[in-house]
Every structure is written in C-alpha cells, then in structure tokens.
Amino acid sequence: MMLTQPIAPPQTALSLRGVTKEYPGTPPVRALRGVDLTIENGEFVSIVGPSGSGKSTLLHIVGTLDRASAGDVHVAGFDLAALNDKSLSALRSQHLGFVFQQFFLLAGETALDNVADGMLYTGRPLARRREMATEALDKVGLASRAGHMATKLSGGERQRVAIARALIGNPRILLADEPTGNLDSKTGASIVQLLEDLNEEGTTIVVITHDREIADGFPRQVSLLDGEIEHDSGDRR
Amino acid sequence: MTVEAPEQPAIAPSRLAPADTLRAAGIGLRTRRLRSVLSALGIMIGIGAMVAVLGLSESSKSDLLAQLDRLGTNMLQVQAGTGIGLGPGTLPEDSTAMVSRVGPVDTVASVRDVPSARVFKNDFVPSGQTGGLSVLAADTNLMETLQGSMTAGIFLDEASPDYPVTVLGAVAAERLGIRTLDQPTRVWIGNEWFTVVGIMESLDLSPDLDRAALVSVQAAETYLEEDLVPTTLYVRTDPVSVDEVRGVMAATVNPENPDQVEVTRPSDALEAREAAESALTNLFLGLGAVALLVGGVGIANVMVISVLERRGEIGLRRALGATKRHISLQFLGESLLLASIGGIGGVLLGSLVTAGYAALQGWGVLIPTVAIVGGLVAALVIGAVAGLYPAMRAARVSPTDALRTL
Ligand SMILES: Nc1ncnc2c1ncn2[C@@H]1O[C@H](COP(=O)(O)OP(=O)(O)OP(=O)(O)O)[C@@H](O)[C@H]1O
Ligand SMILES: [Mg+2]
Predict the structure, then answer these.
(1) Residue B402 Cα, ligand 2 centroid: separation in angstroms?
(2) Chain CA centroid to CA A80, Å
(3) What's the gap in Å between A55 CA and the centre of ligand 2?
(4) How far apart are the C-alpha atoms of B134 and B113, rounded to whole Å?
(5) Looking at the complex, does the CB of residue A107 fall below 8 Å from at least one CB of chain B?
(6) Percentage above 70 pLDDT, chain B
(7) Fold of A12-232
(8) Residues 187-206 of A with CB under 8 A from B
(9) Per-residue confidence at B66, pLDDT binned at 50, 70, 90?
(10) What is the number of CB-based contacts under 8 A between chain A and chain B?
(11) Of A111, B8, B31, B142, which is most buried, counting CB atoms within 10 Å of its CB?
(12) ipTM surpassing 0.85, yes or no?
C-alpha cells in the first residue's frame, strides 16, 4: 500500500508550543503547564523527571493517544488539532512506534505474530507482515525465537519483541515509556544499545526513563518537573 | 469533525482486513479456552433443545402421517350408544346388510361380543383371571376391512374346519404367552379347546381387537353362546365420501333410534394425539428460548469481563493504529464466534438427540432445515446482541488509561 508522505519531509519530528494538559477533577490535575519542545528528525532524546512530573502524559500527547488541553502539537509534519480520531489512528499506524514498560505482548501469539501485529492496521496481508516481522526479529537478534509463544520469553526478550514490533513499519518516530523499567541493568543496557542502533539508521527516538545513568548516555536530555521543562540540554535558545 | 487544513498531507486511513478482524476476534477464544467453551454452552443447550424438539416433532409427525396413510382415514366405527339406562349397546341384526347397501361403502364387517366366554392358556387357570382379554365373534372379512396384517398364521375364513379355531390379537397373544405357531397351539375358551390359527399385528385404529380372541360367528354360536348380535361395525368407505357416509350412518343402522348410534372415525384420535404433541412441542420450544436467552446473557457477561481484563491489549492496539471501530469489531466478532460455536454445537447436539430417539422409536429421522438454519441464525443474532454493549465499552476505553494499567 502506498502512503502519501508529506511532500518534503519536514526537519522537525515533533514540536510542542505552550502545551498544557489538565485532567478534570476536584481540584483539576495540571499534568503539563506550558511545555515548549522541539525535536528534530534523527534526534535521540531522553526525558527524565520525578514520578508524577508529567512524562507519560507528554509521551501520550506526542504519541497522539491523548489531546492537549491547550497549545499546538505537530507530529511528523501534521498539526494534530486538524486531525480527527480516525486520522490520528492512521498517523500512529504509519509514522509512530511505541515501546512500553509492560511490553504488552499478546499472550496467545508467537513472537513472530506479535511483531507482525505492528503492521496489523496498515492493511498489508498477513504473509507480507510475517515476512517483514522475520526481518525485524532478526534486527533485534531474536530470529531464533520467532516461533516461541510470547509468554515463554524472558523479560529482555519480550522487550526486544516489543521493539521489533515498534520498528517493523519503519516509523519516523519511536516513543518509549520506561522501556528498561522491568529489566535488570545489564539487560536494560542492551535494550538502550538496540535503540541507539536504530537511531543510527535515522529513526527519531524519545525515551522516558527514571534511570539517571541511562539518561546521561543520551545526546540530549529533557527533564520535567511539575509539568514544566526544568532543563533541556539541547535547547538552542 | 475537524477539517484538515489544505496544506496538510493526506494519510491513508488505518485498515483491518476482514480476515484479520476474524483472527483478532479469535484471540480471546484461543487464550481462554475453558471459559469460552463454558460461555458457549448456554447457547448450545438452548439451540440443541430447540433443534431436538423440532426434529422430534417433525419425525414423529411424519411417522404419524405415514401411519395414517397406511391405515387410511376412510374407516368409520359404528357402535350402539352406551348412554344412561341403555346398558351395553347392541345393533340390529340386519345393520351389516343395511350399511353395505350404502353406495360409497366398500366393505363392512361386524364384531359381536361373547360376554359369557373367557380365554385362558389352559383349563387350570381359575375362571376369575381373565387377564383383561375378551372373546369376540368376527365376520371373516374383518381383516380386509381393517387392512390389518398377520404376525403368524391366517385369519378366520369361510371354510371353517370341523374343530373350533381362534385368531388372537397382538396383546392377547402376548398375555397368553404365545409368540409363534410353529407348534400346534390351543387355548381354552368357554368350555372348549380352540386351536390358534393366527396372530394379528397390532391394529392402531382398533386397539380393542388387540386384546381379543376372535372366533367365527358360526363357531361362537356352535360352541359358546347363541343369539349373538352385532356390537361394533367397521366400515371402509370411498375416501372422498367419508363425511357423507358418516352423516347417514346412524339412520341406516338404526332408523328408529338414530340417536342411540355412535359413529366415530378412529383416525381422528391419532390426529388429536398429534395436536396434543404439538402443544408440548411449543412448551419445549419456549424452554429452549429461555435457555438461549440465558446463554446470551452468559456471553454478554463473559465479554464484559473480557473487556475489563484486556484493557492493556486494547490500549496497545490503539497505539498500533486501531480505530475505535476496529476495536469494537474485534469484540463483536469474538461474541459472534462464541455464539456460533454454541449454535453449531447446539445443532449437532439436537440432531444427535433426534437421531438417537428416532432410532429408538423406529421412526425415520427428519430434521427440518428451518430448525438448522433458524438455530444458527438465532445463535448469531443472540451473539450480536450480547456483544454489542461489550464492544461499545471496548471502543470507549481510553487508550492512555489502558496503557497506564499494569
Ligand atoms: N487520567 C488521569 N486523571 C487524573 N489525573 C491523572 C491522569 N493521568 C495522570 N494523572 C496525573 O497527572 C500527573 C502526571 O502523570 P504522569 O503519568 O504523566 O507522570 P509520570 O511523570 O509519567 O510519572 P511516573 O514516573 O510515575 O510514571 C500525575 O499527578 C498523575 O496523577
Ligand atoms: Mg509514567
């Protein structure tokens, strides 16, 4: 299937201007309070900050899973405010990849089919998806585990499968929320190495982590505090 | 709906091919097999009951129709009314001749009670023990009129031998312990040995004769009792004139007191039995429908629980690009799959029960297509209705909330 790409791929992968997010309640929770952030294509960025500082909220908003209460969000050249729910789903299926702390693999499927599910909603036939999944599994070094059920894999292997699933469609942006959170530090390091390799190939990668050591290894760090950007090592203003 | 700004590039919409929808719908069934089977069980029992009830009633009806066809609906039975003060009724001596003169009547045969006579296996049995069997004197054309047949031997005929003979009804033969006539067999009637020359097949239209030992009128008057009068006439008519013959029968038999004559059509009783069975069929169909409803509620319940348990999966699928519609179709599909497993299982179960019971009864198996198709359609409708609410709930799950759950 042919995707209509933006005519000239913009330099900017993500940009947020004055983004706030308020969760209704008494009193309402202000999870983000005026965030300005620009991430260019091909960047490798870590987002750090204490628990409750709004990291996941930020990731969900740039991942188009939730809408900002106010402010402008552009992702992969699209103004999210101008897209309806269906278009946001389409944007996710074609341009965004996600990796989560809890892996979220489907228990009833093999590693290969879990990876193939990364393209499930693009309308490609199953045989083609499996072909691409084989390649993606190979890339994360799990070709030998293709036929194993997801439930039979170790934590590190599961996260590799999840990364293969996120990269199978060759997304422009990969968003990871605490991808090493459930792994020991050695396994976590190998996962970060894998993400680094992907970044070398041109994928823009944003990783949330609470692990200072891991974050320090990133070329750019953004730290959040109480819904505001406290420090951005890559801020060129 | 927001309108895309003109400079926005187009994005091809997310798509989920029908085959992939089906695969996604099957995931819940594969990972939770026992629960799926149990939740399909209600539908299976409901559909099974309905298919079995329809199949059995159809099989028994077709058997009955075949039986009616075989026996004919053109036989009338004429008896004297046994009203208050009339005592056991008798018919005029010449009634047989009178009836046979009616145009559309094909044959008529009379039967006469021989009230003083009893039948026994031998002459030692105390005379009190009649075993509920009667002795009747019959015309020789009775068999032909009833269109009955013999299990063994022959019926009474004109060429009576010098010694007394009898023909036993099916029940009478069984009670007397007589199964075959390979050996010369005698029974004790009145004060005389009668040789058994034949055993009749059971007569569905005249069960009275099954419990009787039949002798010829001549033999009865010679050996048992004199001055016998007809008590029952069996009349076989032209099939198209049954009602007309029935109308004139009372006046023909007893012109002076036509109201003391009772004319019945024995096949009506079989048809009445059929009507009673169809009332029972409706009752069971109703019970099947209740089981189906309960099955539907069971599926809805399991689906709601499944949606709650699988919030993580729903969140992930939304992250992978599923639209709300894709999510709801997946869960609706799962409910339809559960229901069709129940439906197919139910049709198989119902057919099996029908086949088994019909074989036991010696009927031909007949499962109406409408029961099979109707059963499957009913299952799918129930599945769709049961899955609708859970599917809507699944679509409404907020992806961010779902992804926050551990
Ligand atoms: N659906 C919601 N309704 C109300 N409040 C919410 C909701 N989701 C998040 N919050 C609140 O918003 C704030 C930011 O939450 P968020 O999950 O973004 O934090 P985080 O930085 O990812 O924390 P952690 O490191 O613990 O994952 C928190 O105070 C949280 O309680
Ligand atoms: Mg978080």
Answers:
(1) 13
(2) 17
(3) 6
(4) 8
(5) yes
(6) 94
(7) Rossmann fold (3.40.50)
(8) none
(9) confident
(10) 129
(11) A111
(12) yes
